[in-house]
Write a structure and sequence with these properties.
Length: 301
């Protein structure tokens, strides 16, 4: 495994490869997958992930939407921007630039973990104007307690040491370590998913982007601005999520009472990879109820 992913080598077996393209936007090269037809649904994955996270969900949504799913800056096959731009407001601006370059106007915005925060920031900034934001175990609130004192400073310290991403990536080359990492999220995913995560976490450039993103992350302005969010918000929270406790979704709903909350029992942080059919059904049902999708085009139960 090289210092960064190679599309020729590492992308040869990438899920939904036929939907992939490379686009210049915001000053660097993005990997983005586009499939389907109909209203545009913009997908944003979480920290340390990539488009492979949507491998099963994306084709299901593509029956009803034009699905646009990029690798976020520095992640997967998208180039690394300057480190200071791996922050919530900067990533929101850069993803908006990608949407303009692609000439897409998302009607649905679907984000997992940190991706949900990015899409919400974009909606608050009016750089996208979706009718609905779907949060899959969204990372909306800052860490509390000891984590608030330790997590971000620790991430910042790690990013200053150029050896750290290589050391982490070396550990990521161990399939058993990858399995433990995923199990620690409360999810059980298939062997193909574990292999793809292994490919990512054994790549120093990808690891460096994830660490820098964590070091730059500040959710306080987002929390402050949440009450003025205009699009509808659907919070999907998995009961076994050990990364983003489901109580986060409940607290967001207290801040934004008009938000809908859907609790999913028995699954973890990667529930959209564990049960993509269920995630798709919830999203499409919401699309029907909001009038974005015609009823006759919904998934059968």
């Amino acid at each position: 495994m090289g210092a960064k992913l190679s599309w020729r080598a590492d992308g040869a077996d990438w899920p939904n490869r036929e939907a992939s393209r490379f686009v210049e936007a915001a000053g660097y090269r993005w990997h983005v997958q586009i499939m389907g037809s109909g209203p545009v649904a913009l997908l944003a994955h979480g920290t340390g992930s990539a488009t492979h996270s949507w491998r099963a969900l994306m084709p299901l949504l593509a029956r009803h939407f034009t699905v646009v799913a990029p690798d976020l800056p520095g992640h997967g096959f998208t180039e690394m921007p300057p480190a200071f731009r791996l922050s919530l407001p900067s990533m929101a601006r850069d993803l908006a630039a990608l949407c303009r370059q692609l000439d897409v106007k998302p009607q649905f915005a679907i984000g997992h973990s940190a991706g949900a925060a990015i899409l919400t920031r974009m909606a608050l900034d009016r750089s996208i104007e979706p009718s609905l934001i779907v949060s899959l175990n969204g990372a909306f609130l800052p860490f509390g307690g000891i984590a608030a004192l330790v997590f971000s400073p620790l991430a910042k310290a790690l990013t200053f040491n150029p050896l750290v991403p290589r050391l982490v990536a070396r550990r990521g080359g161990d399939p058993a370590a990858v399995h433990r990492l995923i199990a620690g999220t409360g999810s059980i995913i298939d062997a193909e998913g574990e292999r793809l995560y292994g490919k990512l976490v054994s790549t120093p450039a990808h690891v460096a982007a994830a660490l820098q993103m964590m070091a730059n992350w500040d959710l306080r302005p987002l929390v402050r601005d949440l009450p003025r969010l205009q699009p509808a918000l659907l919070l999907i929270a998995a009961s076994n999520d050990r990364t983003i406790p489901p109580d986060i979704a409940r607290r967001v709903r207290e801040i934004l009472p008009k938000a809908k909350l859907k609790m999913i029992p028995g699954h973890g942080h990667l529930m959209h990879e564990e049960v993509p059919e269920l995630a798709a059904q919830i999203i499409i049902d919401e699309g029907i109820s909001s009038g974005v999708i015609a009823p006759q085009h919904g998934m059968s139960t």
